[in-house]
């Protein structure tokens, strides 16, 4: 038996692969750019200020049983009284919307987004105001807001579990420009 197995390479998402319906559905306050959190993924970046309390959603994807989901990165679990726990799976970008590109936050301090379950659908709500960011700043110092030093950048991200909801997944947060969530 050969012990020299290697992990399969993770494919890097590109903006060219983002479906047109996703781009058309982006709110005016955000844009998609390469993620600063995960270099293999696309991220959601605030390009205009987003006020505390703003709600985005619903998260869109295929409804599946957990056993049918191959990748839990792009999904939320929601409890349906007649069906039990079902996953809203956006692994296939053609089946999801722009919220599929919200990434994890690096820490709870960066959390600025929180998931809400409303009528069996997942929405994100901002917990703090996010400042605007300019795409040219993507090539500046990582982990800081564009035009500032030492301040975290805005991003939407889930972070801690929402115990008041019947949904299972992480809470979300929005740190300076990139919108990410924490698990």
Automatic annotation (TrEMBL):
UniProt organism field: Mandrillus leucophaeus (Drill)
One of the record's GO molecular function terms: histone methyltransferase activity
Domain SET: 28-147
The protein's name in its UniProt record: PR/SET domain 2
Gene giving rise to this polypeptide: PRDM2
Superkingdom, natural source: Eukaryota
Pfam entry (one): PRDM2_PR
Positions of region (Disordered): 135-183
CDD domains membership: PR-SET_PRDM2
InterPro entries: PRDM2_PR-SET, SET_dom, SET_dom_sf
């Amino acid at each position: 038996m050969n012990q020299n197995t290697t992990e399969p390479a993770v494919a890097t998402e590109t903006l060219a692969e983002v479906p047109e319906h996703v781009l058309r559905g982006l709110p005016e306050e955000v844009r998609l750019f390469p993620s600063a959190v995960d270099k293999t993924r696309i991220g959601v970046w605030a390009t205009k200020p987003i006020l505390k309390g703003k709600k985005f959603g619903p998260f869109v994807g295929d409804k599946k049983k957990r056993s049918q989901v191959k990748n839990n990165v792009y999904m939320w679990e929601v409890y349906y009284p007649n069906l039990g726990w079902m996953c809203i799976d956006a692994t296939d970008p053609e089946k999801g919307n722009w919220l599929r590109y919200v990434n994890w936050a690096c820490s709870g301090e960066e959390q600025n987004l929180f998931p809400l379950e409303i009528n069996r659908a997942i929405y994100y709500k901002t917990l703090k105001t996010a400042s605007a960011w300019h795409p040219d700043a993507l090539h500046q110092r990582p982990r800081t807001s564009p035009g500032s030093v030492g301040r975290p950048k805005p991003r939407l991200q889930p972070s801690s579990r929402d115990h008041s909801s019947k949904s299972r997944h992480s809470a979300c947060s929005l740190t300076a420009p990139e919108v990410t969530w924490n698990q």
